[in-house]
Amino acid sequence: MTNHEPNADPLFLGMDTGGTYTDAVLWSEGRGIVAKAKALTTRHDLSVGIAGSVDNVLAATGIEPSRIKLVSISTTLATNALVEGQGGRVGLVMIGFKPEDLARDGLAQALGSDPVIHCAGGHDVHGNATRLDLSDLEASLPKLAREVSAFAVAAYFSTRNPAHEIAARELIRARTGLPVTASHELSSKLGGPRRALTTLLNARLVAMIDRLVAATEGFLAGRGIEAPLMVVRGDGALVTASFARTRPIETILSGPAASLVGARHMTGLSNAVVSDIGGTTTDVAVLDGGRPRLDPDGATVGGYRTMVEAVAMRTFGLGGDSEVSLVEGGLDPGLKLGPRRVVPLSLAGTQSASVREQLERQLRAPNAGRLDGRFAMRTGVPERLEAGLGVPEAKLFAAIGPTPEPLDRLLTSNSQNATLTRLVARGLVHVCGFTPSDAAHVLGRQSNWDPETARMGAELFSRKRDGRGKAIATGPEDISARVLEALTRRSAEVILETAFAEDGLDGAATVAHALVQRAVDGRTGIARLSVSLDRPVVGLGASAGLHYARLEPLVGNVCVLPADADVANALGAVVGQVRVTAEATVGQPKEGLFRISAGETVRDFLSEEEALAAAEAEIRSLAAARAISAGTEDAEISMTRELRTATVEGQRSFIEARLVATASGRPRIAL
Q1: Parallel, antiparallel, or unpaired for β 282-288 and 314-316?
Q2: CA 511, 494, 261: angle at the middle one, nearest 5?
Q3: What is the sign of the dihedral through the CA atoms of 189, 87, 628 and 570?
Q4: Packing angle of the helix pair 46-61, 192-222 (nearest 10 deg)
């Protein structure tokens, strides 16, 4: 496949770093996908997985690395972290908010045990300031700097005047040197607690995305690839790596958004339901008229509604590496899949011989143990994330090593289960256990890892007891077949749930209704019921062919499985465009005074026309600058303007205006 023609199409390298695999594709506009490859994602050192996939692609083609003119990466790392409740410890600074505001929009739940500092200050709806007092923050910084990995700052009505957020941001940076996210940098929408939530999650993800970008940049430099590095945002647009480093929250749903772009490119379908199944999550979205639907209210991931503009994607903790457990209660307990990802036993078995030895020991026991087939191991992430561990967490973490330790010997009390869960949530520890990937190995439908440890894990799981005291399955093959069947069945449910939600219904409640369950199962009765989609399903992901093979009768439409479904994300990463926006509001704090708020600029004018013209000029300039920062120099800028007025006794009265400038274009490539 080597091509030494001087005028050959420039080659683009697309990568996707998922929870389990890192994919790579070489693509050109003239030839399409030239080569593709996969390697395991190595969370402790992301460069290892990146190197494995890209080196395989380069070896398959024999091209010189210097031929690559653009590199773009999508990732599910941020999405997975929020679904699994992981990320760094963050110090949240709330300016002008009351303590009870933490109870709104899930902010307290997202904060967890992370520290929060309340300071006096903030602004009113017109951008007028109240007195700022950062003394409590200043006094707390020496201690906080040792306990957190980043800070999030949110001030009351900062979208109308960000001055107090800027003051707190600069103070924290000067005293700690740690990353700081201010809420006005991420969103211009009103709704303080939800903006604070978005800012908190962004700060929590900074270290994770920074590691990904640093690992990728280091690898590219080592291979002599001197090309711009782009990252896919959650709306499918591309931005430079430096842009993504400061706004990692915008990469939530990056991988799924890239998969939609890739699905459209590969199938040519304008209308479809796209379902991308990975190791950790299943991501479902709708293509309408050739474009993905965007969520007007902001992306929801891991149960949190953010202010991030992204595809209207629903992310479920369902994948090949989902934890398999039993639904508690009842005589015939059903199988539960996810939402937590665990390391498959078949994968752990390839990395450590002790896994097989411990499984053999557990199989020799006369009775099934509650913790059989389960292990824990360190993830190997930087020690910074260990800051702030409590005594129980620190003690258990010290007992866990880099290789899998059996839980039946590691945990000595029931309370340590909760301690282990907290370590997993911090991203410090992986749990290993029986998964659908193991079930596929047992039945010979997957063979990339160790089938023997998968079989032993399946046998241990099949020995679990139901409410009558009987084994839940007859053996490894029986339980494995049931696990794969349950995964396909659950996949149909999440696809239908997404469709119902897009139709304005409560998706989860509708799918759970007995009538829909009967229709999906095809159970007959006096009343014949059926449910079907109005468009085909596009199945993506390396395991889509396995898990979606029997999907069609469950969703009532065809399921399209593209030839390159396993690398749709990596392909989508290189065929997209740069797209950024800048927004401004124009208000009237008092009769005859018009105030514009655009970015970090607040200015007053004496006429509506002057204010609107100044606001448009300001955000055109902002959008153009952001487009250059995001990676394109030939951006086209479009404007939209929403004007709110009222007529009172025949007289027009100005209320407020909102202006948006959108800049878009193809990313710059190396010459």
Answers
A1: antiparallel
A2: 140
A3: negative
A4: 50
Q: How far apart are CA 618 and CA 516, in angstroms?
A: 52
pLDDT for res 40:
83
pLDDT band at 9 (very low <50, low <70, confident <90, very high): confident
pLDDT 10s digits, 134-150: 999 999 999 999 999 89
Q: What pLDDT does residue 386 have?
A: 56
pTM assigned to the model: 0.70
CB 443 within 8 A of CB 481: yes
Given a cut of 50, whether residue 1 has pLDDT beyond it is: no
- Provide, for the chain, the percentages of residues in helix, strand and coil under a 3-state DSSP scheme, each rounded to the nearest 5: 40, 25, 35
Residues 6+ apart with CB under 8 A from 347: 40, 437, 449, 450
Which string of b and e fits 367-398 if b means at least 16 CB within 10 Å? ebeeebbbbbbbbebeeebeebbeebbeebbe
Residues whose CB falls within 8 Å of the CB of residue 303, separated by 6 or more in sequence, listed in order: 106
Helices (H) and strands (E) in the chain, counts: 22, 29
Q: Which residues contact 505 (CB under 8 A, 6 or more apart)?
A: none
* CB 92 within 8 Å of CB 144: no
Each residue of 82-118: pLDDT tens digit?
A: 777 777 889 999 999 999 999 988 899 889 889 999 9
Q: Which residues pair with 586 in a beta bridge?
A: 596, 657
Q: What is the DSSP letter of 19?
A: S
**What pLDDT score does 311 carry?**
85
pLDDT, tens digit, 9 for 90 and up, residues 384-430: 555 568 889 989 999 999 999 999 999 988 889 999 998 988 888 99
Give which of 473, 478, 489 is closest to 443, Cα–Cα: 478
Burial class (CB within 10 angstroms; exposed 0-12, middle 13-18, buried 19+) of 217: middle
- Torsion from C-alpha of 54, 59, 64, 65, nearest 10 degrees: 10
Alpha carbons 275 and 277: distance in angstroms, whole number: 6
